[in-house]
Design goal:
The protein is of the alpha+beta class and 477 residues long. The chain contains 18 helices and 21 strands. α9 crosses α11, α10 packs across α13 and α14 packs antiparallel against α16. The model has no long low-confidence stretch (mean pLDDT 95).
């Protein structure tokens, strides 16, 4: 066969199994699946498989395994690290979960949702809300990202500070293994101490160990009251002190606490329509805080006003605006959620999704900013993110008017500069975006020795022929 086509016998078998809607082979039909959201990676594939059920998926995987064809699981294709993009050999098939899109069951007693992998996170959130419940996970790409990908990358997002990452919210999984066998781990149990917790292997594995088809997700009662405020601060130190103040008063009330640099905020208000700064003047940095409660009284408002009043007195904040309606609340969150898009419109960017201990965040941001500005004069340092759980998206945007390709050619130097400082503060070079194919080269120095060797043994045991999402997580041999 040619590098860009399936063996005839496999093509026929897949066509018979999946039907016309389930097998795409034309270049025009497959092109959008072969490029990542950031346009960093452009691959090719032999076909896109779109199974409509776990059974179809398992049979398709078994056929591909039998023919030795590599497989790339793909959900909403929102990966920031090229984790769902095939290489350029044209040998691999992409297995898209978008047709496995049913919400099977919502259980009010257990506070769980049983949902197929292709349901978008936003659709799952809305389904829970219609039942008076909340799916706590919230990320900027939730309108496109699907449940399977969210779990496979152990997504975090805005509410991690209160509810944890996808790992903490995943109770059960159904996974198609690389040989086509289906692993049923669909148990709605909080306690189950019967051997190895196998479902945890697949959460955050980025599709390298198997393809998630169904999940049981932990829900929560919907908040009956929320209070949201955007605050102007002078530094990361003040933002962290403000978070500590809210946590000291009532840690259970804090739903989200986000940090935004002045540079990143300026890109949003300049490049995104309908995003204007709702404060009297720009500030060096900002904090977006949201409190939530299942109570319907006004105690949250009192808490918010009390903490902010004290913060004014202690000069932790210089200005603040409180949302007076749901529309205003959504406007404040829109400002935060558009940071990634604004940076994309500003030109090429190098994204560092890092985490450090909370106490180290101010020193990290200060030192990393200084080092990057010295490395590339004119670089726009635009960090933002989930300061409440220690996760900062330390993003660097090309100098204004500069050459995009020349800037991107220095991506490893930039990432290594930031990573060196992250290591100094005992952090991680990937907090929630994963490794994908962008950061595989960092794995030996960060996770080498027994840790990486153990990962490789697990991979070899479940996928001895390296057919499931090859080229991701592990460095090239």
């Amino acid at each position: 066969m040619s590098d860009s086509s399936l063996p005839p016998s496999l093509h026929t078998a897949l066509k018979d199994l999946l039907g016309p809607a389930g097998l795409l082979t034309g270049t025009d039909d497959t092109a959008s699946y072969c490029t990542d959201w950031r346009m960093l990676y452009q691959g090719r594939c032999a076909a896109v498989l779109r199974p409509a059920s776990t059974e179809e998926c398992a049979k398709a995987v078994a056929l591909c395994a039998e023919h030795g064809v590599p497989m790339v699981p793909q959900g909403g294709n929102t990966s920031m690290v090229g984790g769902a993009t095939p290489d350029d050999s044209g040998r691999a098939v992409i297995i898209s979960t978008t047709r496995m899109n049913r919400i099977r069951h919502i259980d009010h007693g257990d506070l769980t949702m049983t949902v197929e992998a292709g349901v978008t996170l936003k659709a799952a959130q809305e389904a829970a809300a219609r039942e008076g419940l909340m799916l706590p996970l919230s990320i900027s790409s939730e309108g496109s990202a699907d449940i399977g990908g969210v779990i496979a990358t152990n997504a975090g997002g805005n509410n991690t500070v209160r509810y944890g990452n996808a790992r903490e919210l995943t109770l059960g999984l159904e996974v198609v293994l690389p040989d086509g066998n289906t692993l049923n781990l669909m148990r709605r149990l909080r306690k189950d101490n019967t051997g190895y917790p196998l479902r945890q292997l697949f959460v955050g594995a980025e599709g390298t160990l198997g393809l998630i088809t169904t999940a049981i997700i932990q829900l929560q009662p919907s908040p009956r009251s929320r209070e949201t405020a955007l605050c102007a601060v002078q530094s990361p130190e003040q933002a962290l002190a403000l978070f500590a103040a809210f946590r000291k008063h009532d840690p259970s009330a804090v739903l989200a606490f986000e940090y935004m640099s002045g540079t990143s905020m300026n890109l949003v208000t300049t490049l995104i329509d309908n995003c204007t700064l709702p404060l009297s003047e720009p500030a060096p940095a900002y904090a977006l805080v949201e409190l939530a409660s299942t109570r319907s009284d006004d105690s949250l408002r009192t808490l918010m006003e009390s903490v902010l009043e004290q913060a004014f007195e202690e000069e932790l904040i210089s200005d603040a605006v409180l949302a007076e309606s749901e529309t205003q609340r959504q406007s404040l969150w829109m400002i935060r959620e558009e940071h990634a898009e604004a940076q994309k419109r500003a030109g090429a960017s190098v994204k560092n999704d890092v985490s450090v201990p909370l106490s180290a965040i101010p020193a990290f941001i200060t030192e990393a900013t200084q080092r990057c500005e010295a490395l590339i004069p004119g670089i726009r340092v635009a960090p933002f993110g989930h300061i409440g759980d220690g996760n900062i998206h330390f993003n660097l945007v090309q100098p204004e008017g500069g050459d995009s390709q020349a800037f991107l050619s220095q991506d490893h130097a930039i990432m290594d500069t930031v990573a060196e400082i992250v290591r100094k503060y005992d952090g991680s070079f990937s907090a929630e975006h994963g490794v994908g194919q962008l950061k595989t080269y960092m794995m030996p120095s960060w996770r080498g020795g027994a840790e990486l060797a153990t990962m490789e043994k697990i991979k070899a045991a479940l996928d001895p022929h390296n057919l499931m999402n090859p080229g991701k997580i592990f460095p090239a041999a």
